[in-house]
Specification:
elongated, mainly alpha, 0% strand
Length: 53
């Protein structure tokens, strides 16, 4: 029987924490309207489509 090597090459939890911390530090002192503009800008730059639209 062959043994499968299960070494991690990508740590999704670590990446998610890094992204969450980066966004949190960029938006921590924003008002609601500033946060809304920030999100719209990020969505436009990433070319992602919002869910439900």
């Amino acid at each position: 029987m062959k043994t499968i090597d299960k070494t991690k090459t990508f740590d999704a939890v670590k990446m998610m924490r890094e992204v969450r911390n980066k966004i949190g530090s960029e938006t921590q002192n924003m008002t609601y309207s500033e946060l809304k503009k920030y999100i719209e800008k990020q969505m436009k730059e990433s070319k992602l489509k919002p869910i439900g639209k």
